[in-house]
Amino acid sequence: MSEYYLNETVVTFPGNIIQDSTINMLRLSDPDAALIISRGQMQEGDELASQIEQQMKKLEKQVKDLHYTPVQVTRVGINDGEEGLE
User: Fold this and answer.
1) What pLDDT does 2 receive?
2) What separation in angstroms does the CA of 33 have from each of 4, 7, 27?
3) Where would a tag sit more exposed on the chain, N or C end, judged by fewer CB atoms within 10 A?
4) Keyword Kinase on this protein (predicted)?
5) CA 86, CA 80: separation in Å to the nearest integer?
6) Residue ranges in the chain modelled with pLDDT below 70
């Protein structure tokens, strides 16, 4: 078993950041899989579930033989205070 830590930082740029498209990809040996963590900005009025559905449809078109687990509700944040999807 391996643990992976994301270390956040603050980076200052002279201009405006117009988009954050951060992607972390972890290749696992057991099971033989990859975990992809991406960050993007939702448009006003969008729901998380519909955003995930749209992203999965894009991935299905881009990745041949894509296999993934069904989306499910999870708890995230300090003391699991926020509802998220995985």
Assistant:
1) 56
2) 15, 23, 6
3) N
4) no
5) 14
6) 1-7, 9, 20
* CA 26/CA 47 separation, integer angstroms: 26
As to burial, measured by CB atoms within 10 angstroms (0-12 exposed, 13-18 middle, 19+ buried), residue 51 is middle
pLDDT for the residue 6: 60
pLDDT score for 80? 92
Half-sphere exposure of residue 12: CA atoms within 13 angstroms, side-chain side: 0
Spatial CA neighbour of 25 closest among 12, 34, 15: 34
Query: Is the distance from CB of 67 to CB of 46 less than 8 angstroms?
Result: no
In whole angstroms, give the CA distance from residue 38 to residue 20. 9
Determine if the pTM surpasses 0.70: no
